[in-house]
Amino acid sequence: MEMEAFSIEHLLRNLQDRLKSSCAIASDFFQKLNPSKPVENRKLLEERQAKQPKNVHNSPDNSGPSRHQLQELIKLYNQDDFTSFLPQAEQIAEKYSKNFEVHIMLGEVNRKLQNYDAAIVNYRTAIRIKPDYADAYINLGSTLKNSGQLDAAINTYKELLKIKPDDAEAYYNIGNTFKANNDSNAAIEYYQKAINSQPSYSEAYNNLGTTLMDKGELDGAIINYKKALSLKPDDAEIHYNIGNALQNKGALDEAIEYYRIAIEIFPDYANAYNNIAVALKSRGELEAAIKCYNKVLKIKPDDANAYYNMGISLKNKGDFSAALDCYKRALEITPDYAEAHNNMGTVLIDMFELDAAIKCLQNALKIKPDYAEAYCNIGNALQEKGELNAAINNYEKALLITPDYPEVRHILASLTGETTRSAPRAYVEKLFDSCAFKFERSLVDDLEYQTPKILSEMIVANHFNGSVGSVLDLGCGTGLAGVELRRFCSNLEGLDLSKLMIEEARKKNIYDRLTHSDIFDYLATEALDFNHFIATDVFIYLGEVSDLFRLIKSRNQRNGSLSFSTEHTEKPGFTLEATGRFSHSKTYIESLCKTFDFRISRFEKTNLRKEKGEFINGALYLLDF
What we know:
By secondary structure, the chain is an alpha/beta fold. 62% of the residues lie in helices and 10% in strands. The chain contains 34 helices and nine strands.
């Protein structure tokens, strides 16, 4: 909430004593000129008068513009007829050069017209005439800030504090100016001073909350937002801000509730609908998210960002045609929307329209030449085409722009024959978040993926009584292995790095507990008491798995079993393949078993799934420990 410069009506109402000599008291004066606006009650007028300095500076001969002249200026102002207002006001200012009201009015109109240099001159002239008029400093400071003169704005507010040391609005506006200058610590200091001066200052609590949220201090932000809300319980923006902080914390249900309250207060709150959609997408509720984006578009039909965001949800849902339509609409509204060109390119890659995809991605780079993600995606398209040297060239361009780009480093390593220890966490999380909603259809229906079923049958066959006890599904994905094992388990828990995969698994209602976590973090920190650990198509992204063996063996509270699949290789150790996935040899697994005291009770080679029409060679293992 930015503190606006005071309106001309506010300023002139505060000049009540001066206007009495020319016409009537300010409230009556404005009632006649603005019949649609309520008259302030006497108590409010008295409170406002009490805040103003007692001495009033008039021009030496006490002369000034006539009542008729002031009425005409205010009429033009209310009609937004600034073209007629300015010459009349300038003429009056020239004739009554010591009359500060006219300079204030000129400043306000020039500020509205963004004639900031002229407005600054007007406000400074008014201050020279009446140095103790607080509102003029506020308006001058606001104008200096809007014109980018942040240091001058701060100095102006500090001049006001010499006159009124406890002026909460001055402290508040200094806080806003420091925030605009990206000095969060100074902004926080001055918002707190504003609050100390005026404990009921809801806007200061709100902006303090926003500044803390920008610093990542979400709990502090929520505390201050809630203080603001206790002072203004019907303020939609504060509810919205609390929702944003909660969403950043991952408390999606609470966030959505605050967004909904904001919409109840302000039904056309497009940003609140947008952020509900973002939260719903994070929960895997794509249909509901798309409905919210459509509500945004009913309120703001030309909102390119809403079309863009809806395109992401439609792509994740696998509705590529509708996603393309959204990106096209976003680009009709905002032709230089580089991100929309980029995302259209990624959809076309998924549709295997690779030349069209590359053209879209090149359009993104024309708009945004340092767009590392677009170079990465061109590399992906060229890799799909089999043009590996050109793909490598584009990946290298992406790294020149963003040296710390884990996904690109991993892909480059896979194409140049380097074997890294593991796939980057961000790469794996992004990969599976992007395919969570089409994962099963793609694997099971299109790629003939039967590994969870076959591995589960191996596990059950190894337990003569048919019960496998308590099971931890490592990298559970959408729950394909869980579906096969559930009826044989006394307890079934799953974890996955992809939050969207977890949400898909949750829909099956088969797991006793699901956790969004990195496998190694979970094994190192959580209490482990399982009969069996299973990992289907997980090692292919882990690479070096010695820590997995070590943690299970050392931290599980009982003897048990570990079963998993690998992409099989006859090469020693493990290898990063050109696909970006790892293959593992039997000799590598045997060496881990020897080191950590596991025993191979069953091993068999298998066809894991199809890729480009051919089956991938795999292996299934069942180990006891």
